[in-house]
């Protein structure tokens, strides 16, 4: 599945537009990651565990969008937008949303 944030794919002709597809992933931060992130905030540095969890959630969202596009008969998604949102009463959840237009290129 070709995926792009641009509205077109260079060297490819879009022959059909099949509709908007989405993928979502909601992840929760556990207490151990929170503890180590708090230490990182004090001493400096990157929060590796959070970065890996965020990368995993983003990949899940992209995979879900690709599966939705494939079900429509698409072989590409264009105009992809990735959005991040903090959820929950204590901001303990992060939602990653991927959306774009499923197309057939030839």
TrEMBL record:
<protein>
    <recommendedName>
        <fullName>UPF0145 protein I8J34_11770</fullName>
    </recommendedName>
</protein>
<comment type="similarity">
    <text>Belongs to the UPF0145 family.</text>
</comment>
<dbReference type="InterPro" id="IPR035439">
    <property type="entry name" value="UPF0145_dom_sf"/>
</dbReference>
<dbReference type="Pfam" id="PF01906">
    <property type="entry name" value="YbjQ_1"/>
</dbReference>
<dbReference type="InterPro" id="IPR002765">
    <property type="entry name" value="UPF0145_YbjQ-like"/>
</dbReference>
